[in-house]
Amino acid sequence: MRKQVLIAGGGIAGLAAGIGAAQAGCEVRLFERAAAFSEVGAGVQLGPNVVRRLQAWGLQRPLQAVAAFPPRLRVRCALSGAALAQLPLGAQAVQRYGAAYATIHRADLHALLLAALQQQGEVHLNLQQSIASYREAEGAITVCTDGKKVIEGDALIGADGVRSQVRNQLLGTQLPRRTGHLAYRVVVPQAALPERLRTQEVTAWLGPRLHVVQYPLRGGALQNLVAIIEGPAPVDLDGWDHSANAADLEAALAGTCSALQDAVRGVPEAGSGWRLWPLADRPPLQSPAQMARGLVALIGDAAHPMRPYMAQGAGMAIEDAVELQSALSMHDLDLDLRLRRYALNRWQRNARVQAQSERNGRIFHAQGPLRWARDASLRLLGAHLLDKPWLYAA
C-alpha cells in the first residue's frame, strides 16, 4: 500500500520534496498557502552538484530551455575594479564534474519543478491551505490546516521556509537570526542596458562590508544583479521581498569603482526597480535530530537556512529532496527509520555549507589587512580557491 506523504510549502523545496517522494512510490499531498503556485525573487545559481540531480530526474532538457550556462566566474575588486581571479565554468565544469554550472530565474526553476511534479502519479496539490499544526500518534500524522481541515497521512515534510510552522512545532519556536546584511536585487533585460553593461559571465565584486554579483538568466536575455550591504534593516521590514530605494544603494556604493557604479545606475535607467531582502539564517545544524524526528522531517530553509555566500540555498534543498527520495525508497524500513536515515545522510553536509557560507561572507566583506591578504591570495591561487571539489563532486 502506498504511503501518503504530506508536504507543507509549495516553494522550490516543497516541489522538490514532492518529486522525491513521488518517485519513491509515495502518494503526495502538498499544501501551499498562496492562491497560485508562483515564485518571486531573482536569480539562482546551480552548481554542478545540483544540475546532476536535476538530470537524474530527467530535467536536463527543460533546464537547458530556460537557464543560462556562464563560461566563467570572475572576481574583481569593488574599489579599484581590478581583476583578482577567475574560474572557468562551461565545458570545463562538465568535464570535471559531469554537469554544467547553471544560472536560472527563480520563477523558471519553480515552474520547471512544478511541471515535473504534476507529471508524477498520485499527486494532490492544495492551494490556499497551509499546515497550522500536526499530531503524531499510533504510527500516523494528522495535520490541521489554517482552514480547519483535518488530513491524515503517514509522514509530514516541513518545506515551509525560514519561518516554518512545522519546524516551530517540531523543534520549538526560535526566531531566525538577523544577519545585519541587506540584499538589493533586480532582474534587468540585457537589451535595455548599454552594451558595455551586459554580461554572459558570473562576476563577483568584493568590497569592504559589501559585495555585488551579476550573471545572466534565460539564455542570456536577462541579467541578475544582487548587491549585499552590511547595515541595519529598516524596522518595518520583516519578510523577504520589499521595494528598495535606488538612491540608498548608490549611496552605499559610494567609493566603489566607476564600472560597478555604472552597472548599478544602469538599473533605473533601464526602467527596472530594486527589491530589498533583509537576510536571515540559523546557526549550522548540530545533529540529525534537527532535520527529522519521528514521522516529521524538514527540508531546505525550514531545516537549514543559510547565507547566500556559497550560492547553495536552493541547491541544498534539491539535494535534500534527492536524499529523501532515496530514504523513502527503503520500503523494508519503517517510515520513521527512513526519515532518520535521510537526516543522518544530510545534516553534516548541510551544516558544512551553512558554516562555509557564513565564513565566505566575512571574507567577501573583509576590510583592512584581511582584505589585502584575501586579494593577494586570489591573485596567487585564483581558480584553486574558487573551485569547490568537495561541494561540486559530491
Summarize the helices and strands and which ones pair or pack.
Elements: E1 4-8, H1 12-23, E2 27-32, E3 43-46, H2 48-56, H3 60-66, E4 72-77, E5 83-88, H4 90-97, E6 102-105, H5 106-118, E7 123-127, E8 131-137, E9 140-145, E10 150-153, E11 155-158, H6 165-171, E12 177-189, E13 202-207, E14 210-217, E15 222-230, E16 242-243, H7 246-252, H8 258-269, E17 275-281, E18 292-293, E19 296-298, H9 313-328, H10 335-364, H11 368-381, H12 383-386, H13 389-392
Parallel strand pairs: 1-2, 1-11, 2-7, 4-13, 11-19
Antiparallel strand pairs: 3-6, 4-5, 8-9, 9-10, 12-15, 12-17, 13-14, 14-15, 16-17, 18-19
Helix pairs in contact: 1-5, 1-9, 2-9, 9-10
Describe it.
- This protein has 394 residues and is of the alpha/beta class.
- The chain has a domain at 4-38 and 105-176 and 282-362: FAD/NAD(P)-binding domain (3-Layer(bba) Sandwich).
- The protein has 13 helices and 19 strands.
- It has helices spanning 12-23, 48-56, 60-66, 90-97, 106-118, 165-171, 246-252, 258-269, 313-328, 335-364, 368-381, 383-386, 389-392; strands at residues 4-8, 27-32, 43-46, 72-77, 83-88, 102-105, 123-127, 131-137, 140-145, 150-153, 155-158, 177-189, 202-207, 210-217, 222-230, 242-243, 275-281, 292-293, 296-298.
- The protein has an eight-stranded mixed beta sheet, sandwiched between helices.
- The longest helix has 30 residues, at 335-364.
